[in-house]
Please model this.
Amino acid sequence: MAPAVSVPAYHVSGQFFELCDCYTICPCWVGKPPDDGRCTGAFCWAVEAGTIGDLDVSGRSVVSVSFHAGHRDNGGQEVTLFVDDDASDEQFTALASTFTGGYGGPLRELSRLMGVLREATRVPISLSTRDDYLSVTVGRMVTGDGSVLRGGDGEITELRSGRLSEVLGPRAEVGSSSTFRIDLGGQATSIEVAGRAAMRGAFTYESAGEA
Model:
């Protein structure tokens, strides 16, 4: 009998950003089909502290660019994964496995929804947030910036316990992009839009590992 294959435990926390070509709020957040029947976007994670197995991955960044038609629960997403180019070989492998759902836990859904992983590669990544603003740069392939929306009371508009909360964060600040561009060389995931959905918030993902 072949030995059981196990995946490591992980505990990572930091800040997430999400930008896409849907209008605010992206319907995926509330369990609806995307605007215009398709969604191209980027999930971005700035890991402030964390370990995967015994490996420290603090300070690393990961961006998942995806495209899907129809409801996201139907699966079949086309995904390109980027890990920041300061990651070691070991960090790259661990982060790529974790943030495509391969190590199970709260991020398992990312694996279930994936149709094809086109590429996983290291590139320079900059994820930043300050005051009401956020920005994302992934090499020459992805750029985006935006700002959060404030209500009549001056407080930031928030969405809690949305459909994407498990793979992003339980509380998401609602925003709008001023620019958002993806250029992956002519694939469906190449877009350039403005005034579309943008979200940001804190995340903590923890898994005890699995057999």
